[in-house]
């Protein structure tokens, strides 16, 4: 599972308890630092079991979380709800 967190500063925001920091991407390299945009990516690996992502999917449906990618470990199936 990959979760993005968008910021306007280069510092990595603190990770959430269930995810770990992976990498940051400079998305908008504006000459004015106030308009630069970074996408910080956090990852979590969970063994599959029925219902293990139900809460996450509910948060996505309720617009509490956006931009999540859910994939298997071999990246054969990628879901972007």
Task: Please tell me about this protein's structure.
This protein has 81 residues and is mainly beta. The chain contains 1 helix and 5 strands, in the order E-E-E-H-E-E. The strands form 2 sheets. Strands 1-3-2 form a 3-stranded antiparallel sheet, with no helix packed on it. Strand 2 and strand 3 (37-43) form a beta hairpin. The chain is elongated.
The strand order across the widest sheet is 1-3-2
What is the average per-residue confidence, as pLDDT, rounded to a whole number? 87
Counted beta strands: 5
Uncertain parts: none
> What is the radius of gyration computed over CA atoms, rounded to a whole number of angstroms?
14 Å
Strand content: 25-35%
Q: What is the terminal separation in angstroms? A: 12 Å
Shape: elongated
Task: Please provide the ordered H/E string of secondary-structure elements.
Answer: EEEHEE
Percent in helix: under 10%
User: How many helices does DSSP assign?
Assistant: 1
**Structural class of the helix and strand makeup?**
mainly beta
Sketch the major β-sheet.
3 strands, antiparallel
Write a concise synopsis of the structure shown.
With 81 residues, this protein is mainly beta. 10% of the residues lie in helices and 32% in strands.
Descriptive keywords:
single chain, 81 residues, mainly beta, 3-stranded antiparallel beta sheet, 32% strand
Record the SSE blueprint.
Blueprint: E1 2-7, E2 20-28, E3 37-43, H1 54-61, E4 70-71, E5 78-79
Antiparallel strand pairs: 1-3, 2-3, 4-5
């Amino acid at each position: 599972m990959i979760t993005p967190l968008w910021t306007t500063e280069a510092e990595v925001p603190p990770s959430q308890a269930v995810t770990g920091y992976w990498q940051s991407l400079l998305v908008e390299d504006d000459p004015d630092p106030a308009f630069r945009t970074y996408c910080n990516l956090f990852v979590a690996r969970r063994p599959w079991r029925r219902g293990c992502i139900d809460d996450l999917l509910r948060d996505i449906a309720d617009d509490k979380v956006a931009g999540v990618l859910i994939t298997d470990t071999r990246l054969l199936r990628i879901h972007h709800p």
